[in-house]
Amino acid sequence: MMTFDVLTFGEALYRLTPPNARRIAGATHFDFFVGGAEANVAVGLARLGLRSAWLSRLTDNALGQHIAATLRGQNVDVSRVIWTPEDRVGLYFMEEGTPPRASHVIYDRANSAMSRITPADIPDDLFRRGEGKLFHTTGITLALSESALQSAAHAWDLARTAGYTLSFDLNHRRRLWSDTDARAACQPFLRSADVIFIAQRDAQTVLGLSGSADEIIEQLHAQYPAAHIAMTRGAAGAIACDASGQVVHQAAFPVTAIGRIGAGDAFAAGFLYAHLSGKPLDEMCRWASACAALKLTIPGDMPLIDRAMLDDLLAHDGGDVSR
Q1: Strands 6-9, 82-84: parallel, antiparallel or unpaired by DSSP?
Q2: DSSP label at 107?
Q3: Are strands 91-95 and 82-84 parallel, antiparallel or unpaired?
Q4: pLDDT tens digits for range 151-164
Q5: Contact 96, 16 (CB under 8 A)
Q6: Cα(198)–Cα(221) distance, rounded to whole angstroms?
Q7: Which of 46, 93, 277, 285 is least surrounded, with the fewest CB atoms within 10 Å of its CB?
Q8: How far is CA 182 from CA 88, 100, 128, 230, 276, in A?
Q9: What predicted TM-score, i.e. pTM, was given to this entire model?
Q10: Contacts of 75 (CB under 8 A, 6+ apart)
Q11: Burial 208-219 (b: 16+ CB within 10 A, else e)
């Protein structure tokens, strides 16, 4: 029997944000959130009803235990987390700005437990054929350290051998590494992925693609012809193609944004949920965009949405889909 539908692999960390769009320099206290790209995707999929598991390395102290308990509270299986008495839990600080002041992020995650994971830490028995359906990771994990990159590659190979669908979100973070380093490290994952998520800006700056959104998605399809590819475009919505070359455009749902962090992870969760449910490409895009819109209305990093919310939004505002 399957023990999970989806396994995600990456770091969870704490976000500290001054409330009410305060500057860090003038803050007297911080709001405190658990987040991390792969953890957010695991939560989104679990809340939509899939059996979701998260693999990571955490420091065995009150902070690490709190992260695990938070994910467990969202029905994510954390039983295979690798615990260590050493290292630390990563942090990041975020100032939330409104135009014309941009938001600003400060990372404090060097030497985190996840950055020191090694391929030997990966539980090979977790990747038995029939154990799960889909494996998901992101470029953020690859950027943490050389050993994290090697560990992700090892887990990726194990998942591929076990017959999992492979999902990769490029998710570039310039505060972690350069465009050039990201391109070199992500290419092996992109070439073998079954599902690819990429922001249009990353396709341009990391992969060096140019032209209109339609031209970029055609170039992506030419480079990775076997994959479902979903390219997000912010307020302009998304554009996706499948292995046959079919292209679908999805408008963004109207939304008043409150919690911008994690919207891309919610998009990935919605897309993967529809993908694993056997939906056609246009439905994958609608569900993904609806999940992203719902997340934008929710403070914090995690997509605390549910199937009833998603169904209601899709029933009353199906979004504008075109081919």
Answers
A1: unpaired
A2: E
A3: unpaired
A4: 999 999 999 999 99
A5: no
A6: 12
A7: 277
A8: 25, 29, 30, 19, 28
A9: 0.96
A10: 46, 47, 52
A11: ebeeebeebbbb
Which of 87, 194, 265, 301 is flagged as catalytic?
Answer: 265
Cα gap 129→148, rounded to integer Å: 24
Contact status, residue 270 vs residue 2, Cβ threshold 8 Å = no
Identify the pLDDT of residue 2. Answer: 55
- Residue 190 backbone dihedrals phi, psi, to 5 degrees: -60, -40
In the chain, which residues have pLDDT < 70? 1-2, 318-323
Within 10 Å of residue 22's Cβ, how many Cβ atoms? Answer: 15
Residue 208 confidence (pLDDT): 97
The domain made up of 6-322 has a fold known as UDP-N-acetylmuramoyl-L-alanine:D-glutamate ligase (3.40.1190)
What is the pLDDT at residue 318?
A: 52
Question: DSSP per residue over 251-317, as a string?
Answer: PPPP---S--TTHHHHHHHHHHHHHHTT--HHHHHHHHHHHHHHHHTSSSSS----HHHHHHHHHH-
Q: Quick check: is 214 catalytic? A: no
Between CA 58 and CA 60 the distance in angstroms is 6
- Say what the pLDDT of residue 1 is: 46
